[in-house]
Amino acid sequence: MFEPSKKCIFAKISIDFELMERKIFPELIKWKDREGRKPLLLLGVRQVGKTWLMKTLGQRCFDNVAYINCDAEPLAADLFSDYDIDRMLFSIQTITGVKPVAGKTLIILDELQQVKRGLHSLKYFCENAPQYHVVAAGSLLGITLGQGESFPVGKVDMLHVHPMDFEEFLQANAPQLLDVLQKGDWKMVGIFADKFVDQLRQYYFVGGMPEVVADFVNHHDQSRVRQLQQNILNAYRDDISKHTTTMESMRIGQVLDSLPSQLAKENKKFIYGVIRKGARAKDFELAIQWLVDAGIVCRVHRVKEIKMPIKFYEDLSAFKLFLCDCGLLGCMAGASPKQMLVGNNVFTEFKGAFTEANVMQQLVAAGLTPYYWSNDSTPAKIDFVVQDDRGVFPIEVKAEENVRAKSMAAYISSHPEAQLHGLRFSMKGYEQQSWMTNVPLYAISRLYPSSTVPWRCE
């Protein structure tokens, strides 16, 4: 039994982040207080909230903050000309006007990938000045590492920051509903099902990029949501053009442009021919890897068997490709507010593409690595497969209340030795069966619960 444990003009928009809370914040506090702590590296796609997290940690938990944006600060180019810790600390004080004091100052090195030797300098903070709290981030650190930048192996702590999950969205937009959901009383949850579904529609439209969520909570303006989302997509494309050759940029753009069409197929396996006629894997493998390394897309590989450890059965030749955020997917696809916010169209259009993208987003936010299963000789498929410390679980995703899960039922019954228990995410209420648990689409995160209440340092 499974127990739940158009090119838009860039615009400046004033956004109030005061209501924002992130589940990852307690991990930052644990890092701050950990014995043997190393410099912390935050990884994640651009605009996912890394800078906000670092500054909020400094404001809540330290006496002062020495913040340097290595992309915007000209003097940062010479900050790591050598690895003399005393000189680096003095330079940080000169640039920021804040004298770093061990245990009382948070040193923030933002966009660290923009300066030479910046990433490698963390090794020397770890070895020669471990008493200082140093946290670093960058929008394209994954790309930097993929290009062979010297990485301080074993000398840094790392955390991955993902777009906000549905519970974090509720915390900002409808906290009273989050209270109901977190109590775990499924009968009470069912009473408020219509309200949860309405919030889920809004989440599909807004997504989980913190800037967009904060603006939506403050203004509930659909045009502002789409403007901010388009700005983020434009920023991604700007990164692509700045950091790749013309040919690479073109191919990366083609992969990105193909995503809505890829996900609107009945079988969402990535097909190179959808990019352009005659396209071959060898022409686009590097383009896909660039997008994965940048965090813009998530690649979900197929597995040949649903067994532990699931990694042993991974098929690297077949995969699905999802945009990192369901709201950005809707913006890229040109889905109108009416189409997404009225009725059940958002759940059923595009062959459930938004629903499957949402499920992927919730699983990744929970720290899981999702896979999928399909049969080479039959149309049978299982939308996702995940493994955690409780075992390996096949997952069927249903965008409606029509919940016949024939492929999953057939697989589980034909593999009794695996003792599998399935999960079905659908619009039906919570239901426990001997072979499968049905969980409402708005309650996926209840399987991997963690609090979203405001966190403060003692």
Quick overview:
By secondary structure, this protein is α/β, with parallel strands linked by helices. It is built from 19 helices and 13 strands.
What does this structure look like?
The chain is 42% helix and 16% strand. It has helices at residues 25-33, 50-61, 85-96, 118-128, 141-146, 166-173, 175-183, 186-191, 193-206, 210-219, 222-243, 246-263, 272-275, 281-293, 326-333, 337-341, 345-348, 353-365, 406-414, and strands at 40-43, 64-69, 105-110, 133-137, 157-160, 297-303, 314-323, 371-374, 381-388, 391-397, 422-426, 431-432, 436-440. By secondary structure, the chain is α/β, with parallel strands linked by helices. Strands 7-6-8-9-10-11-13-12 form an 8-stranded mixed β-sheet, with helices on both faces. A 5-stranded parallel β-sheet has the order 2-3-4-1-5, with helices on both faces. Strand 10 (391-397), helix 19 (406-414) and strand 11 form a beta-alpha-beta unit. The longest helix has 22 residues, at 222-243.
